[in-house]
Design brief:
Chain lengths: 305, 350
């Protein structure tokens, strides 16, 4: 009921705004599509509003409303649950580390795809998207097998005293695997559009190779790198299948938030599960908003921003 | 800075096709030279070779008598303006201009105030003092051009290389920038090499014009010489509208194949030849009964424009407005082409 009242209040405020002349004009123009030459503007507008409302806003609203249905109690109780905070911290920190480590890797791969004239370039190009196509459980099992203490890579590593599987480094590894395509695919088109003359101009102006890389190539890529980071991070926070096989899933150590939600569901603790989901949602949202603001700030030079 | 190029040859990657074919040229200090020619003639390739951006397989290149092997040696001594300007999109105009100074090793780098003053000075020289904090994406073509030039000049080079710098500008801006560039060249005592496919631009701005075709230098001369003594029919045609009359040299006369075009005396040996002439050099003669019909096409720049209909083709003829003659009334005349240059197998014969 409270939610409905809130919505009505917002609608009222909206009407007041609309009465203001310029706002009204802006709204009519928006509705009519300005002087757009595209046919079917209103149809597309209605379709978009319906689509986003039905498939994105509605489920999100349900997610926001559901935890409170059994009263404030379960949510507050959840807020006192140290296990949940440990899981959230594991999720966010590993996702951030993985996305961060993907920056140089993705940049290098995109660089090779755009500039390198290697024979197997087209195959490599196709392979990069594989982590997106593979069922996440398959990648998880594959990674777990490779890095388990008896695995091809895990055995020599364990001899060196490094254990990857069943630790947080295992989670980071899995998240890097699934996040890499996002980084490569956001950086690649921007890198492709950077004219090669920029490097030549810098060279002729006396820049040394290191200066060319940092000041002329990476600097204009920063917005794309940040977007790639955001996408890889978001994917990492929500990733489930590929992580649970390699993570070991020990509470307080290597348990990720999505897994904790499943655990709560299996305990039939629906309010608890939705409360974690809500906190996860809010935390992700605020991180993504911050990244968006930062991105706008560092891409002030481009026309669209 | 003087530039000397000797027997420079460059091949297309992985083929025997020559992009530059045995080019020998000297650009003395203070010269303003235009490289002209159709697209694919090798103008830009030559310019890039001089800048050191591309390596040539054969030949030598010396700048001020020294062969500078690496780009590092040339850094800051050569100003290069790219066709698309290649401004750094993420830097402000001021940062773009100061780039060449900012990247200097700490010992050689001027202090921040000195750099700021240099940028200010250049912005004023380029007549864009208000744009220091703007980003390249928001500039017009002419403004980008000026920023690119300022960036190229920041390190105080004595050789300026310009690759089709006026290509993307509208005609009015082109004309202003052209004159301004010439003034700048004289003011700073630069050696400037300009690549353009617009022969009019070259004729107007440069002291010397190098016409290129298929990777070779066809003619290297002053604008006046080029206009008066084109060495090949290609140069003649490239420098402006030209009309060709095929004919025969006989008994010391060039006899055109077409009727109603007057023969004229010449010294060259007998045989087939082509007479090429500019439309404003053709004269109209009123003698004879049967003559070429003339269609009027209005006037411009003090010339009356006609189109003379010969058998199978129409030839443009521009006559000074001040000249009289019966053809104004009768609308037909004979063509006198005695000012034509005669070419045999594409090269100048008379």
């Amino acid at each position: 009921m409270r939610a409905f009242n809130g919505a009505a209040g917002q609608y009222h405020a909206f009407c007041i705004l609309v009465v203001d002349g310029s706002m009204k004009r802006a709204f009519t123009q928006f509705w009519r599509g300005g002087y757009s030459a595209l046919p079917g503007y209103r149809f597309s507008l209605l379709f978009t509003v319906f689509w986003t409302g039905f498939f994105i806003i509605l489920p999100l609203c349900a997610l926001i409303i559901r935890p409170w249905q059994d009263g404030v109690g379960p949510v507050v109780a959840e807020l006192h649950d140290a296990r949940m905070f440990a899981a959230l911290w594991t999720s966010f920190s590993t996702a951030a580390v993985a996305a961060f480590l993907n920056i140089p890797l993705g940049l290098f791969l995109a660089w090779m795809l755009v500039r390198g004239d290697l024979p197997g370039r087209h195959i490599a190009n196709a392979l990069i998207d594989i982590p997106l196509a593979l069922p996440t459980a398959v990648s998880g099992i594959t990674l777990a097998t490779l890095y388990s203490p008896q695995g091809w890579l895990g055995y020599p590593l364990s001899k060196l005293g490094i254990s990857v599987a069943y630790t947080r480094s295992g989670i980071v590894l899995a998240l890097m695997f699934v996040g890499l395509p996002f980084m490569v695919r956001t950086v690649e088109p921007v890198l492709k559009n950077l004219p090669q003359e920029l490097e030549e101009a810098a060279k002729l102006l006396g820049a040394r190779p290191r200066q060319i890389i940092t000041r002329v190539i990476i600097a204009p890529l920063r917005p794309a790198l940040l977007t790639g980071f955001g996408l890889a991070f978001a994917r990492g926070v929500g990733e489930y299948g590929s992580v649970i096989f390699i993570a070991g899933n020990q509470p307080f150590k290597s348990e990720i938030a999505p897994l904790l939600i499943v655990v709560r569901l299996q305990e039939f603790d629906y309010p608890g599960a939705t409360a974690i989901a809500l906190i996860l949602l809010l935390a992700s949202l605020s991180v993504l908003v911050c990244l968006g603001v930062l991105r706008r700030r560092i891409s002030a030079w481009s026309v669209g921003a | 800075m003087s530039v000397h190029v000797e027997n420079l040859t460059r091949y297309a990657p992985a083929s025997q096709r020559k992009l530059l074919d045995d080019i020998t040229l000297t650009f003395p200090t203070g010269a303003f030279v235009a490289l002209v020619g159709p697209s694919g003639a090798g103008k830009t390739t030559l310019l890039r070779a001089i800048a050191g951006l591309d390596q040539c397989e054969e030949g030598t290149l010396t700048l001020n008598g020294n062969s500078l092997k690496t780009l590092q040696d040339r850094a800051g001594k050569i100003g290069f303006v790219f066709q698309n300007y290649a401004l750094f999109p993420h830097m402000t105009v001021a940062r773009n201009i100061s780039f060449g100074l900012d990247v200097l090793p700490r010992g050689k780098r001027p202090s921040p105030t000195e750099i700021a003053n240099r940028v200010k000075e250049l912005l004023e020289l380029m007549q864009i003092p208000a744009l220091a904090e703007a980003y390249p994406a928001r500039l017009s073509g002419g403004q980008r051009q000026r920023v690119a030039l300022a960036r190229a000049l920041a390190t105080g080079p004595t050789l300026l290389l310009l690759d089709e710098p006026f290509g993307a500008l509208d005609p009015i801006v082109r004309r202003t920038i052209r004159t301004w560039l010439r003034t700048l060249h004289d003011q700073l005592g630069l050696t400037t090499i300009l690549v353009t496919h617009d022969q009019e631009e070259a004729l107007e701005v440069a002291d010397r014009i190098v016409v290129m075709q298929n990777g070779r230098v066809v003619q290297d001369a002053s604008p006046t010489d080029l206009d008066e003594k084109p060495q090949t029919s290609f140069v003649m045609e490239f420098l402006g509208e030209a009309v060709t009359f095929k004919g025969q040299v006989k008994n010391g006369y060039f006899v055109p194949d077409e009727a109603h075009v007057a023969s004229f005396p010449t010294h060259i040996s007998e045989g087939r030849a082509d007479a090429m002439i500019r439309p404003f050099e053709i004269m109209l003669q009123d003698e004879g009964e049967a003559a070429v019909p003339l269609a009027t096409h209005g006037k411009s720049n003090g010339y009356r424009h006609y189109s003379a209909t010969l058998a199978g083709r129409a030839v443009p003829v521009f006559v000074p407005e001040t000249s009289g003659g019966a053809h104004i009334k009768t609308g037909c005349a004979h063509l006198n082409i005695q000012n034509a240059r005669i070419f045999r197998n594409g090269t100048r014969a008379n």
